[in-house]
Design goal:
This protein is about 35% helix and about 20% strand. It is of the alpha/beta class.
């Protein structure tokens, strides 16, 4: 990789948001061409997992078989749906996914719809969308570099600090390396929630399912079932999208499901995503205007509810402790007062953290620079300039993705279509900024 110690733009986060911003900038460069004497714009994308174009939801951190939570026509751009119909055979035979049995099964199940281009109502595997964006990023970079319009570096590493300076930014990584840039985009995804319990995987507490692509849950279920010599009781803390995905994950792994006695979903709402299941006995589990969910997820969850495997408890968890018997004891505030629950494994599915409640070194360091990175009122991100994605406290520093979220749901930038919309606007703004004499790399 060429030297990017002094780049025009550094993007922290190479998932969907960061990649779409870069794709938009490069497309603008390709449309405009280049005047004689202009140097190519230098862009460096830094991603913690090296999942460029994919990120956590659409890459290797999400297990095989995970789906988009809305039908394709409601959740993806038309160009992806057209591409899917055109290239689905190629995806099977290229070998990229040859070990992904659930993806293979999905493609076989919907073979007729894929061949006929009738994909609008399908809940598509997330890895397929990730593969599409990854390829699109690669192709767009190659075109821009071939015409000497841009030089784009892809680096695996964890950004831990951003220091604003008169001439731009110094970006620091966990390995103590640093890079300088004239502009900066924060595209690191959801704020990780702090582990207030202090418990670890070895104690039966799974704080972050995606940190190791569900390996912690898989290994701990097998280990504890063997050690205890019986079936396990699992408690899922929180009822957002990852809660129903955790249930779906277990359903597709017979060796794990066979050693599970119960799954209790504990949350302040008492609901699961996906709408109301049939029957009044299930209403408390799924009503309340929760987020949508994939049809396959809902079908599995409904069956488990009917079988008595999955139950719901409406309560707010206050504390989780591990005791000598190796079980976990959960103190919660229920509808009728304090209650105590027990489980062999607790899975955290409580969603994103807040700027003031996170174990992220990057977010903590940015918050400490309060003159530049001012926390917004919702504590979900940082204060921006009016009608802009630029940070209020620093020039040429921008934000995209969940860090744009406010309390109101319509402000959330997590869905694919929302990311596409914001990335186009931000990419256009950055193209203009990078094309100005002060920002262009004529040095």
């Amino acid at each position: 990789m060429m030297n990017f110690n002094h780049a025009d733009l550094i993007v922290a986060g190479g998932g969907l948001s960061g990649s779409r911003v870069v794709i938009q900038i490069l497309n603008r460069l390709l449309d405009a061409g280049k005047e004689a004497g202009e140097k190519p714009i230098e862009i460096l994308i830094i991603d913690r997992f090296g999942e460029f174009g994919r990120g956590i939801p659409y890459g290797k951190q999400s297990p095989s078989g995970f789906l988009l939570i809305e039908p394709a026509d409601q959740s993806t751009p038309k160009e992806f749906r057209d591409w899917l119909s055109l290239h689905y055979k190629e995806l099977v035979h290229e070998g990229v996914h040859h070990e992904d049995r659930l993806l293979q099964a999905w493609i076989f199940r919907y073979k007729e719809q894929l061949e006929s281009g009738q994909v609008d109502e399908l809940y598509v595997p997330r890895k397929l969308f990730g593969f599409y964006v990854e390829r699109l990023l690669s192709q767009t970079v190659q075109l821009a570099e071939a015409r000497n319009l841009a030089k784009v570096g892809l680096m695996t590493g964890e950004v831990t600090d951003v220091e604003p300076e008169d001439s731009g930014f110094t970006i620091r990584l966990a390995d103590d390396s640093s890079f300088h840039s004239r502009a900066f985009v924060l595209a690191t995804g959801c704020i990780p929630r702090s582990n207030s319990s202090g418990l670890s995987v070895d104690e039966g507490y799974i704080h972050d399912l995606y940190e190791d692509a569900y390996a912690g849950l898989e290994q701990e279920v097998a280990r504890r079932a063997k050690a205890f010599g019986r079936k396990l009781d699992i408690l899922i803390a929180g009822s957002n999208a990852s809660a129903i995905e955790a249930i779906y994950f277990l359903s597709n792994r017979a060796e794990l499901l066979s050693v599970v006695r119960s799954i209790n979903v504990v949350s302040s709402s008492g609901y699961l995503p996906g709408g109301v299941f049939e029957g009044e006995e299930n209403e408390a589990l799924t009503s309340g205007g929760q987020r949508p969910s994939a049809r396959e997820y809902i079908e599995i969850a409904a069956r488990f509810v009917a079988e008595g495997l999955v139950t719901a408890t409406q309560a707010k968890i206050e504390q989780i402790d591990s005791r000598a018997d190796r079980r976990l004891y959960i103190e919660a505030d229920g509808l009728e007062g304090k209650i105590e629950l027990t489980a062999d494994i607790v899975v955290n599915c409580t969603g994103a953290g807040r700027v003031n409640r996170t174990d992220s070194p990057l977010i903590s360091n940015l918050r400490a620079r309060e003159n530049h990175f001012k926390t917004n009122a919702s504590l979900r991100g940082f204060q921006l300039r009016p009608n802009s994605y630029e940070l209020e406290g620093v020039d040429n520093g921008f934000v995209i993705g969940p860090l744009l979220n406010q309390d109101a749901l319509e402000t959330h930038v997590e869905s694919i279509l929302a990311v596409y919309r914001v990335a186009e606007e931000l990419g256009n703004a950055l193209y203009q900024r990078l094309s100005e004499t002060a920002m262009a790399s004529k040095r």
